């Protein structure tokens, strides 16, 4: 009877064990004498195929271990094998083993082992995201290389919930760039733009990226100024082998390459993003317009002769695009210090031509009642030099020092030739814009990582950032003639340049601007673990401080040409001859200049930002972990301008805001997690949004001005996510989110009877909510080798938002004075948030075979989103969806040469901006009827499909570092 009972109990135990959820074993392996991690030590469960190797920190993890008692065997070259019997694994729990190995007593001098944790692979990024406490998504350098994306802007649009505006700026969950924080190597980046708070992601070449992680939920460690996401770009840090390689890319763009286009000449090394001093404004000019304009017309003309006559246009044939890249990695020892360096140098010279259809409407009772219509021949040439230079010094297993520098020098030469009509006035119009923009962006950081015992880590970062932006001599001119007017000979009368009495941004003039911004940062972060229990993750506390000082100087000058008496003969001349010195006389029948600059066109900004945080993990058994955090942010934002030689304070905002956060993870199984998150965040106004300076956008025919009355917006964020990891490189996740905004900063179209003028205002409130799905699927278990080489990636987002402007908003009028606008009869009080897409879809099929062949097909689309906020007189303009398909093919030859072929935007669908004439929030077909319900295209063009061929050559790699 006892034997039968024992047999039944034994069988029942075996059955229950067989059907029980597996557990896991994790731990660390160190040298018993030196306490250093044993990188690559092997861990195996006796009698099974379950094993793993220790990583760079000596840590390992064994998953899917059957519940029960096992013997664990640990081996390492030149060390004594260690066997650990009776290791008990419970269903769904993690057992922890921390052990040490003793040397065998003899050394194998010829064996040198060095290792580094891989962070740039798809598996590594998935593993990192899985372990993070906040909700996050990411993309690895490995995936970027497969996609052949040229820069961070092209690469990051593969991430769930992310879309790109103007091929440069990132939107997360449909929220504009102002709601996203960008960090490079954990330091906040300076804004790369003057008019908006945004970072231009095309500044970061893809070949210097290690990985990009997008945090969707807040945490105490992250900056509080965000609502869409915190984007962390990590550049390459230290190589695991010596290497030298280079790449050459030749690009062809349909509708651009080999086309004849008009451009203008700039002296200096424009192909390097530089210019000569003769393009800058002479220091001899009086500083204030009031002093300059009191001079006689002849005296002002004498200054006008100092401005070079560089107006003439020339025809060129556009050459193919060129990109060059050189990469160098080295590791060596200086005494007992392990030193490594990575250097990347990039150069590109690219071209873009577009024939842009531009229309403005009267927006009365009848649809398609055209006010102005134009065709813009828009040609631009961009140059960029980028340098990444990183050093790493490993002094010991407990102390690392890094120095990272990123430099970008960019130049953009843009020429717009505009032909069309002012239909209502009965004039033919011919406008020209000749613009050169130069940007210099530098960030350099020194950081240190310290381990203080086994339980405490400390790191610090100090950095300096500089952003310079120059627009030397932006020239604009407008010609016009009466439509259909003919002379005595029956020929159409010639165009005549419009020289207004007082300078204005539309007509004849020259604009100069300079921005200089300097940022100093210091951050200190610490982490301490409490104990090391064997049945769960240890409790941890994290703490840190962050300080930042930002100084900005911005100045602008604007001069307009005007005629003295009747100068029609001169103004009817060719654009290249009108401004010759003999015509700038200041006497009757000649031309002179006036200064249209206002004192407020220059300003100085100071921003002091300090933060401190603390967060901790609370474990509830082996499956649940709660991370609580608190961050406090103090910010003092000041804006000054010199008015009539007196420094005037325009803004002095001092704000302290507490920012609590909560992140909860419940481990449903070893492969499934349920996450919940809450965070309180904010959104500050940028200097440009505050400065009462008016900037003219020639391409959109609109003024943009700041609002000194802006307040800080506050946001409440809630997220929930289910994630499933079928294997180490597979992922399925579903995320839902909700956001509530108080005083969100939105663009506002100032009521005016003539032209478009935008500013920024605080709306009353807003909300945004939606869902995201991400799938990453491989076929490693398939019987077909073709399927084994396939990886599918897809993600989609559905988002809904609504802004409630309230009854009254506060902003500047056309004179710049702050006033309150009653919105009754002016604009809709409720609408979607600007730049908010109702849906985003990304998809990709990746194929890679061991022989070196790779190809992928990628797809991206976003839903219609508000591009320019309207009112009752000027309808809201939407950017319409574009279906973008890219194809990339590459082949490696032996181990040295790789060829890549890329075709981007195969469909070449038009970039289309349409206005909502009937104010129903929907854009219909591109109709031409005159029905009152018709919506209308205001701007439309095609960028052209892009073909690129890259040859990358590896000059040699050494897998064993001396």
From TrEMBL:
Gene3D superfamilies given for it? Carboxypeptidase-like, regulatory domain, TonB-dependent receptor, beta-barrel domain, TonB-dependent receptor, plug domain
Signal peptide coordinates: 1-20
Can you tell which superkingdom this protein's organism belongs to?
Bacteria
SUPFAM superfamilies registered for this protein in UniProt: Carboxypeptidase regulatory domain-like, Porins
Compartment annotation:
Cell outer membrane
Indicate where this protein is primarily found. Answer: membrane
Keyword tRNA-binding set for record: no
Q: Name one GO cellular component term.
A: cell outer membrane
Q: Which InterPro entries match?
A: Beta-barrel_TonB (IPR000531), Beta-barrel_TonB_sf (IPR036942), CarboxyPept-like_regulatory (IPR008969), Plug_dom (IPR012910), Plug_dom_sf (IPR037066)
- A Pfam family it matches: CarbopepD_reg_2
Q: What family name appears in the similarity comment?
A: Belongs to the TonB-dependent receptor family.
Which protein is depicted? TonB-dependent receptor
